[in-house]
Write a structure and sequence with these properties.
A hairpin with a 6-residue loop joins strand 7 and strand 8. It contains 2 helices and 10 strands. The chain has helices spanning 39-44, 61-67, and strands at 2-6, 15-25, 28-33, 49-52, 73-76, 80-90, 95-101, 108-111, 117-121, 126-129. It starts with a strand and ends in a 9-residue tail after the last strand.
């Protein structure tokens, strides 16, 4: 499978093919890429994400991973407990968490993106977010 590294880094590979994947335990994996054959090249990619073509992934991979978030409590940095994840909505740009409001209000859609997710604690089944002003009022 070919992946793209984003954001692109100066002097680092932009794309690579996956050579191997090893389960490192606790939800972590060790992935080796063609062309990333030294610590120097690997260090250039620190902080990058790997994008893969949807067609290259196992059919149920994304749905299975997203469904594991149902029931997690969502806590905002300023508003406190927002509610619990009732479903995960797949959009072309990102996943959205449909959160049933703790106050009984209309469900709110929270983008599941690094810019908003502060922490995700699987053991506590809790997602801490820092939502932009006004998002909860939409």
């Amino acid at each position: 499978m070919e992946v793209a590294f984003v954001p692109p880094q100066h002097d680092a590979p932009r794309r690579a093919r996956v050579q191997s994947v090893q389960d490192a335990g606790k939800g972590a994996y060790l992935v080796a890429f063609d062309g990333v054959d030294s610590i120097g090249v690997a260090e250039l990619l620190v902080g990058c994400s790997c994008l893969a073509r949807r067609a290259d992934l196992p059919e149920d991979a994304l749905a299975a991973e997203a469904d594991t978030l149902v029931g997690f409590e969502v806590h905002d940095a300023r508003a406190g407990l927002v509610g619990a994840v009732e479903s995960v909505v797949e959009n072309p740009g990102q996943f959205l968490l449909s959160v049933a409001r703790a106050d009984g209000g209309q469900p709110v859609l929270v983008p599941l993106v690094d810019a908003l997710v502060v922490d995700l604690d699987e053991d506590a089944r809790r997602i801490d977010v820092d939502l932009p002003d006004g998002l909860l009022e939409l």
